[in-house]
Every structure is written in C-alpha cells, then in structure tokens.
Amino acid sequence: MTGRVLGGLMAAWVLWSGAAAASALCPVPPGADSAATGLVHSRAALAAGQPLTVVAMGSSSTEGVGATTITATYPAQLDAILEQRHATSAIQVLNKGIGGETAGANLVRFDKDVLAAKPDLVVWQVGTNDSFQKVPLDAFAATLRDGIARIRKTGADVILMNPQSFPGEAKVESYPAYASTVVALGRELDVPVLDRYRIMAWWLESRHFAADQVLSTDGLHLKDLSYRCLAEFVADMIDTPRVVSEKTAAR
C-alpha cells in the first residue's frame, strides 16, 4: 500500500464515524473522527426502545467468507453488539451477502432481499468485485445512486461500506478508485460511509496489524478479528449522534 493512495483517500469529506468510541482492539487512523449523519430513523427507534431491523447487503465480506463460524460474521457480531447496547429494543440484523456479487447483482436482489424486510437501516458493502470485474466506474456509481434512492424512498437509513485494503490490490490498478468513489458518493448524497479501505490500509501501513491477523490465508477475505471490528464500527456509527466534518488530510 503506498502513502500516495492512502493520502488521497484520507482527504475525503466523510470517511468514518465513531472514532471516539473505537475500542482498543479496533483502532482507527488519527483524525478519523467524523460522525455519521443521516441515521435519524435508526437512532430514533433505538432511543424509543422500538424494534430495529438492519439488512446487511453485499458480497463475501457480508456473507462472511473467512469467518470460522456463522456467529463470527460481521452481521452476526453487529446483532450481538446492538442487542447488548440496546436491551429494550428487539434487534434483527439480516445477512444478505452473497460472495462474488457486484453492486449490480446486489441491486437485482433488492426487492426480495432488502426492501421486503422493511428495514430501518441498510448497510451496503460494495465495490470489491466491481473492481475485479472491471465494471466501469460511472456505471458503478450509477448503480449506487439507484440503490440508495430505492432505500431512501422507503424511509430507511443507509450506510455504505467500501472495499477492504489488502496487499494484493496492487495488481488491480483501478482498485483504489472504487474505494474513493464510494466515499465521494457518500459526501455528495449525505450518506455515511464506513471507509474500511482507509482503516485497513492504516492498520497495515502502521503495522498495528499484520496482514495475516486480519486477512484469511487467501490474502483477501477477512478473519474473525476484522469482522469483529467491522461490527464495532457500524454499531458506533449508529450510536454516534455527533456531526463533525472530516477535513484532515494525510501527511
């Protein structure tokens, strides 16, 4: 991972929420203290002790490839964290990830796997396979816009999660562009973004984690530890009401 790539992404507007609440196990880059906006519906439901339904849509990182058990996937761990934090609310996190899918393939399943569940919140993990399959960036962005609009039309909140960082990404020249496109759309559409690319790049560059601590033996998919961190990050985004703009550029 080069400092040039990491620096370019760190200059983005909305990068990640909940840094103040990050655990010692799951640290975040210095300066990544933006709070998630646009989650009014989900926060109101939890504050009132009402049920909360979250749909986790995406590909292998959502499905949980690399996790040792179903309960170690990030949606399952997110469910457990939210239930612990909000004991008076009935929490339901539905895992609708299918490995290998692009954003377009996700969108085909929206009616059945997302909207039919009448979610309060949709966490859409996206971008890795679009890069691998060389989906044009403008088509990728258009698909995200379409999906976000469809979710918002129902009144549900949205969180976007961009691709993971991994050592082998250097072989895919356009890979960082997909990660930054997700961040840029979040800024434009006022959708909170879990910038997993930035976080994992910092983990590896700072040597806080070695690659084999957070990536499976294939060097791409996550492990239980990194899935735990994703769950904590999303939970913190939901629970953090502050509104702070991220304007810190990488040095």
CATH architecture: 3-Layer(aba) Sandwich
Instruction: Give the spatial strand order of the biggest sheet.
Output: 2-1-3-4-5
Cα-atom Rg, whole angstroms? 16 Å
Question: Please, how many domains?
Answer: 1
Overall pLDDT, averaged? 87
Compute the separation of the termini in Å.
15 Å
Tell me, what's the shape?
Answer: globular
Strand percentage lies at 5-15%
- Name the CATH superfamily classification: SGNH hydrolase
Structural class computed from helices and strand pairing: alpha/beta
Residues in helices, as a percent range:
40-55%
- Element string (H = helix, E = strand): HHEHHEHHEHHEHEHHH
Indicate the low-confidence ranges by residue numbers.
Answer: 1-21, 242-251
- The CATH topology comes to Rossmann fold
Major sheet size, sense and barrel closure: 5 strands, parallel
Number of helical segments with 4 or more residues: 12
Task: Specify the oligomeric state.
Answer: single chain
**Count of distinct strands:** 5
Pfam families: NonGDSL
InterPro entries: Ester_Hydrolysis_Enzymes (IPR051532), NonGDSL (IPR057572), SGNH_hydro_sf (IPR036514)
GO molecular function: phosphatidylcholine lysophospholipase activity
Protein name: GDSL-type esterase/lipase family protein
Structural write-up:
This protein has 251 residues and is of the alpha/beta class. The chain has one domain (3-239): Rossmann fold, CATH 3.40.50. It is built from twelve helices and five strands. β4, α9 (175-189) and β5 (193-194) form a beta-alpha-beta unit. The longest helix has 17 residues, at 137-153. It starts with a helix and ends in a 12-residue tail after the last helix.
